[in-house]
Amino acid sequence: DPNPDVKKQIVRELSFNKSCASAHICQYYGAFMDDTAGTIGISMEFCEGGSLDSVYREVKKLGGRTGEKVLGKVAEGVLNGLTYLHSHRIIHRDIKPSNILLTRSGLVKLCDFGVSGEFGTKGDANTFIGTSYYMAPERITGQSYTITSDVWSLGVTLLEVAQHRFPFPADGTEMMPRAGLIDLLTYIVRQPIPKLKDEPERRLRWSEGFNYFIECCLEKEGNKRATPWRMLEHPWMLDMKTKRVDMQQFLRTVWDWQEDQQPTLTTAEGVNLQENGGAAAGITSEPPGNAKVVAAAAAGETVT
Q1: Recorded GO terms, molecular function (predicted)?
Q2: What is the CATH T-level fold of the domain 63-241, as seen in this structure?
Q3: Which of 97, 130, 135, 160 lies closest to 222 in space, CA to CA?
Q4: pLDDT, tens digit, 9 for 90 and up, residues 9-49
Q5: How much is the pLDDT for 32?
Q6: Which pLDDT belongs to residue 213?
Q7: What confidence score (pLDDT) does residue 278 get?
Q8: What is the 3-state secondary structure (H, E, C) of the chain?
Q9: For the chain, which ranges sit under pLDDT 50?
Q10: What is the 3-state secondary structure (H, E, C) of 128-163?
Q11: Alpha carbon separation from 172 to 175, 178, 198, 296 (Å, rounded)
C-alpha cells in the first residue's frame, strides 16, 4: 500500500483540484487505484505544450532563447494561478519550471499540488517542504512559508528559463565544484541575488523592466516581498499585458507540430534587431541554420 502520508497528500490534492475553477490550474478529472502495484493514478487535463522546463530545454537545443514577451505571459499565468490559490487559502510551495504547464494554445497552468499546504489565519504554513533549489530564503532558515515564498520561486524560474541555466551555482559546477545541497542553500541565503545578464556577443539584451521585476521577486526578506496580486500590478507586468504574443505559434515552432502550418523564415524572424536590439523579445542575432531555429529565437513575437 502507498505510504499513509503520501496518500494523505494525494487526497488533499484531489479534493482541491476537483473543485478548482481557474483557467490557470490544471483540471482534475478523476483517480483510480492499482491494487497490484499499490499506486494511485490521477487523470488530469492534458497540456500538449509540455512543461516550461521541457520547452526551454528544446529552445536551447535549437540554439534560440525564450523571449521576454513569452516570459511575460508565463509570469502572468503563474501569478494569476497563485492569486487564485491564495483565495482558496492554498500555497503551492513547489513552483518550478517542471510544474508550469502549457496547453496547445499556450495557456499557462500550474500543476502538482502534492506539496501544497493550507495556511492559517496569519497566512503562513510551517512545514519544510518543496523543491530545495527553488526555495525562498525564509524557508531555508526555517521561517514560516507564505504566499510570497511562491513569488521567490517564480523569480528563480524566470531567471533559469531566460538564461538557460539554474541561476545559483548547483551541485558540482565549475563555480562550486564540491558544493552539496547545504552549500547551495547557504549560498542562496547569504550571497547577493543573481542578476539577469545581457550577452552583447549574442546581441541579447533584456529590458530594465524585466530586470526590476525579477529583483522584486527575489527580495530576500519575505515580509518585504510583494504578493502575487501586487506583482500583477508591477510596471513590467502591466506593459507585458499590452503585448500581443502568439503563444500557440511559439509552441508550434518549438515542437515542430507537422499538422499545423509552419511559419516561413520571414514570419518567423518577426522582429527588427536594428530597431530594438532584441530588448523586447530577448532574442539572439546569430545566423540560424533553419526557420525553426529562427522562430525559437524570436520566441513569442506576434506572427502577422
Answers
A1: ATP binding; protein kinase activity
A2: Transferase(Phosphotransferase); domain 1 (1.10.510)
A3: 135
A4: 666 667 667 778 899 999 888 777 777 777 777 788 999 99
A5: 75
A6: 99
A7: 39
A8: CCCHHHHHHHHHHHHHHHHCCCCCECCEEEEEEECCCCEEEEEECCCCCEEHHHHHHHHHHHCCCCCHHHHHHHHHHHHHHHHHHHHCCEECCCCCHHHEEECCCCCEEECCCCCCEECCCCCEECCCCCCHHHCCHHHHCCCCEEHHHHHHHHHHHHHHHHHCCCCCCCCCCCCCCCCCHHHHHHHHHHCCCCCCCCEHHHCECCCHHHHHHHHHHCCCCCCCCCCHHHHCCCHHHHHHHCCCCCHHHHHHHHHCCCCCCCCCHHHHHCCCHHHHCCCCCCCCCCCCCCHHHHHHHHCCCCCC
A9: 115-130, 172, 261-304
A10: CCCCHHHCCHHHHCCCCEEHHHHHHHHHHHHHHHHH
A11: 8, 6, 25, 30
Selecting among 1, 34, 94, 112, the annotated active-site residue is 94
CA distances from 83 to 47, 77, 209 (A): 21, 10, 22
Find where cell 504547464 sits: 101
C-alpha triplet 79, 82, 86: angle, nearest 5°? 135
Do residues 251 and 104 touch, judged by C-beta distance below 8 A?
Answer: yes
Length of the chain: 304
d(CA 35, CA 284): 51
Q: Where along the chain do its domains lie?
A: 4-44, 63-241, 247-298
Amino acid at 161: V
Report the candidate in 75, 84, 100, 134 with the shortest Cα–Cα distance to residue 300: 75
Whether 5 is catalytic: no
> What is the rounded distance in angstroms from the CA atom of residue 126 to the CA atom of residue 128?
7
Give the pLDDT confidence score for residue 2 in this predicted structure: 56
